[in-house]
Every structure is written in C-alpha cells, then in structure tokens.
Amino acid sequence: MVGAGIVRLPERPMQRRSFLLGSGLAVVSAAAQNPPPRQEAVESATPAEEPALVLSQVGFLPQSRKTVTYRLASGEAPPETFTVRDIGGPPKPFSITRPLAQAPGDVPNCLAGDFTDLDREGYYQITAGDERCAPFFIRPDAWRRTLPKAVSYHHAQRCGMAVPNIHPACHLDDARRRDTGEHIDVTGGWHDAGDLRKWMDATMMAGFGLLRLARHLGDRWDLAGSGLPVLLDEMRWGNRYFLKMQDKDGRVWADTAGGVNGDNSDNHWTDNQAGTADDRYINPAKPAMVQSMFAALQAMVAQAFTASDPDYAQACLAAGLRCWEATEDPSTTRDLSWRVLAAVELHRATRHAQYAADAARSGQALAALQITGPLGSQKKVRGFWETGGPRSAPYWDPVYSALPPMALLELAAALPSHQEASRWRDAVRLYLDEYVAPMSARSAYGIMPLGVFLGSPTAEVYRPIEGELTYRYFMPTRQRSWWLGTTSHLESHAALLGAAARAFHKPEYRDLAFRQMEWVMGHNPFGACLMTGEGWRNSVPYSRFAGPLAGGIVNGIAGNAQDAPILQMEYGNDWRTGEYWTPHNAFYLWALSQLEEA
Ligand SMILES: [Zn+2]
Questions:
Q1: 482 CA distance to ligand 1 centroid (A)?
Q2: Neighbouring residues of 164: CB distance < 8 A, sequence distance ≥ 6
C-alpha cells in the first residue's frame, strides 16, 4: 500500500440518498468540543447519482439468504413492494413481488426486502417504484465462478519476471541492505498493491489465501479444471522471495523496497542491473508478526507440497522451524494471534507435541486478552479483544481484526481434546454472539463495524453504544497519518463466520458471512463492486504501475470524520479507497473457499 502522496478526495455535492440521514448520530467527549455540523455527514458521502436499489452483484446461491436494500431519497414516499423478474427471457415470463420494510439498525433511510424463498435459478433484475437494480444470477456457482479471476490477480502481481500483458521483467536487481549496503538476491515474490513494493506481511497474505483455497477446495477450486498445480505454482513463485528474506539467525526481514524513510523512494522500476544507483533496499527490521506469519506459511507450504514435492516441503518446513525457534512469544493481541496460528500449523506439519503445547500456551495468553465483562459502563456488547501489550484499548485492525477468534477456532479444531478446547470455542462464541451479531445488526447492510472505542479518542464522530463505549463503521481519520477502506476487515470476518458456521452448526453465521462479502461485491451505498472485472460500477483502481488487474480488490469503502462512507468513483487516484492491496484478495479466497467447502 501507499503511505505517502495522499490525494485528497474531491468534495462531494449534495447527496440524495444518505448513509446516515437522521441516524441519531452523536458526538461524544473530545469530539464534543468541536462538533462537526450534523448536516455535513449527510452531504459528504453518497452523491445523488448512486443507485437506490443495491444488492450482491455476483448474485446468490439458490439456498442462501437473499436481500435487497432500497435507499430512500430525502422526502421520498417509500415504495411498499419490490418485484423480482427473470430477465433471461424464459418462455413463460416469471416474476415475484415481495414487501419492502424499514431496515433494522441505525440507518433509518433504508428499506429492506427479502426474497430468500426464491431458489429458482435464473438471471434477474429487481424493480421498486421507478428504480431498478443491477442484474444478478441465482445459480449454484454464482460466487464460485469468481475464484479464478481473484487468483489471477496474484499472478499479475509477480515480481522478478516478465508478466505478459502486465509488465516486462522487473526488479532483477533486488536488493541491497539499508544498513550495510550489502547486495542480497531477494528477487521474486509479488508486488503488494497498486505499487511495486514487497512487504513481507502483506504479500505473505497471498500465500495464506492461495493455500486456504487449496486446503478447502483442493482440485475442485476452479470449475474449469485447472487443478491444484496452478495454486501450487503460484505459491512456489511467491515463496522464492519469502525464503530469500530469511537471515542467518533464522528470522526474516520486514520488506524490500518499502521506502527508506517511510517514503515512496523505492517505489519505481529499475534497470535490472545489480550494483547501480537505482537498486532498491531491504529493510532489515524483524517485526514479531512477520516471524509468526513466516513460520505459519512455511508449515502450510510443507503440508500442501508433501505429496507433490516432498523435498521442497521439508526444506520449507525447516525454514519455518528455524524462524520459530529464533522468535520469542509476543504480547500484543495481533501478534499472539499469528503466533497461535503458526504453532497450530507447525503441529499439523510435524505432529510434534511441542508445537501443540506452544499453541496452547499462546492460545491461553490470547484468550486472557478477551474482554468478557461490561467494559465502559455498558452491557450491550462484550467478547471483543483488547489490543494487548502496553495498550488496553479495544482491539481493531484494518486487516487483521478477526484474527484473534480465527486463531482460537483453529486452535480448538487442531487440538479438540485439549482440556482448554471448550474454553477456546466458548471465546469464539462469545465474540460472535455478543459482539459480532449485535454490532452487525446495527447496520442496514448487515456489516460489521470496524471496532468499538472508549469515548472519542480523536476529534471526530464516534457513535454511542451505551455508557462510555462507542463505535465506528470505518477507520478514524484523525488518529494517524493514513486511513483506508475496510475490505479486509469485512472479508476476514466472513472467513471467521464461515468457519464458525461449520464448527458450531449455525447457519445464521453463514448468512452473516455472506453479508460481509456482499458489501464488497456491490451491496453497499454506492452500488459499486470492489473487484475489477466483476459486477458493475467498479470503483476506479489506484494501480499506477500495472493498471487495472482483473480480479483485483480495492481497499474499498472508508469513512470520513463523520463515519459516513467514502468511495472513489471518479478519477482522483485515491489510494485510500481505490488501491489494490494483497490482503483483500487473500481474505476473499480464504473466506469464499471456507464458505464453498462442502
Ligand atoms: Zn518487480
């Protein structure tokens, strides 16, 4: 992702259909000293031309829950019904009409329609009043057919070789150490995003996405029959780079070309000649999270390649173990979550009891960071995590927000007879039933807000829950120098909910998982599909080296200071909402393969 060169979004004109209209928006504590004008929230988000009727643009599975949202214009008389028509030209015309009703939650200008009972396959369009929605399918492969496109995005992001139709051979001179200047061959891997940098954490996510897809669906992942070799070849390409980033002490470096001073100075094409002035830099820092991600990924690679290339599998496992042995237990919630996942995968790869014990120890530490009591003088929600380490604030993260319960669910699945396994499962249920369910019920779109907060940590809108506890759908804009859309936050919750639906036999988790995915694929206030080449009204990607990439998913819908949604639909080169970023494709593959696993 890009950390510099922020381009301001243009001011929005008056909007017709708001996200927040009359929503009882409250500004508390710090923000109360300088409250933004309430009307600004209404006027700065969704412009008038956005469609009124929005839904999943990839469509629906015949047996899934099906909803449509109608966003009322100010003063508009609400239509009472909507009609679903088969526009595929059936010999006998087909349509059904169902009621529209006020959507539950805190977005009162939205009407909701439900047509879950329609399981007839077809190509449909919905009308209500004078409005119509994007056409959509009901068919068993409605979602599945998007997988090859999402996988192809990773191939297009390859670095260190020519990618036909994308770019000639690149960065064959990567790279030199920032500290010593020593040249080390770290060619290969993937460009992370709309730029050319190779962050280890973000690009290793591509590996997790590909290997989750392989694990959940195996050879069946591509309905065209390309099979596992496509996934494994892609994984092996990325892993060339990851393995080269391991230092002699076993630990791995943070990035190549991330930017020498947090800037964009390494974000350029090079002459492919090592030793010349345009060579890029290796960042020799060794962050805790990157170590656990590396160990987890190598253990997963070992499992995926055991049958087809046992020597490669063993070499990768050995690299992962060297990294694991050189790393201490971390203390923050995010890093502990990756530590648990690493130990679980090492245990799966080796069956050694030591890694089961390590996983359980880290899992206990992670479970202890869950907030199970009434934080902030309220009794509405609990079960979320605290940040851990020196910070006790509630945990949220634009990429890894669902990771703590995901890690405990994996741990319980890997060690089902451990004496603490029921506690880990209970922690996941508490998070889902007393946090995710009530918080996502506040949204007319069924999406999970980004997180909860104590009061207003920054001078902008935080929505009240009860007592001192507040929440935002989107990242605070005044907390740090950057903020961005919540695509990975939502997709990672979809992956969690999909896994939990199977583990706990709760189909309502699966329904909620699809709501998160549907937001990404068009069921949002902009009626915009966030994946290039799928759906309609794709937001304009920020991809200034490779151009548009089929299957690429952008950072997506962010919020302004009023927590009203923002998405670039114009030509402003806005990275915060428009940039491709590897974790979004990774969690898309992870979540969808979880949901499609039979
Ligand atoms: Zn490159």
A1: 25
A2: none
Give the bridge partners for 453, in sequence order: 470
Q: What is the pLDDT of residues 236-292, one digit of tens each?
A: 999 999 999 999 999 999 999 998 877 889 999 999 999 999 999 999 999 999 999
What's the pLDDT band for 104 if we cut at 50, 70, 90?
confident
41, 557 contact by CB (below 8 A): no
State how far the Cα of 73 lies from the Cα of 18, in Å rounded to an integer: 8
- Listed in sequence order, the residues at least 6 apart from 547 whose beta carbon sits closer than 8 Å to its beta carbon are none
- 190 C-alpha vs ligand 1 centroid, how far in Å? 7
Cβ atoms of residues 323 and 250 within 8 Å: yes
Is 45:10 a contact under the CB 8 Å cutoff?
no
Residue type, 346: L
> Domains in the chain, ordered, with CATH?
59-138 (2.60.40.10), 144-596 (1.50.10.10)
CA distances from 285 to 184, 282, 288, 373 (A): 15, 9, 10, 37
Cα of 266 to ligand 1 centre, how many Å?
11
Q: Other CB atoms closer than 10 Å to residue 278's CB: what's the count?
A: 12
Contact 556, 569 (CB under 8 A): no
What residue has token string 């979880």? 594
Q: Which residue has the tokens 């992942």?
A: 221
Question: In terms of Cα–Cα distance, which of 408, 471, 497, 528 is closest to 134?
Answer: 528
Report the length, in residues, of the chain: 598
Neighbours of ion ligand 1 (CB under 5 A): 159, 170-171
Task: Compute the mean pLDDT over every residue in the chain, rounded to the nearest whole number.
Answer: 91
Cα of 420 vs centre of ligand 1, distance in Å, is 46
Residue 7 is predicted with a pLDDT of 35
Q: What is the pLDDT of residues 185-227, one digit of tens each?
A: 999 999 999 999 999 999 999 999 999 999 999 999 999 999 9
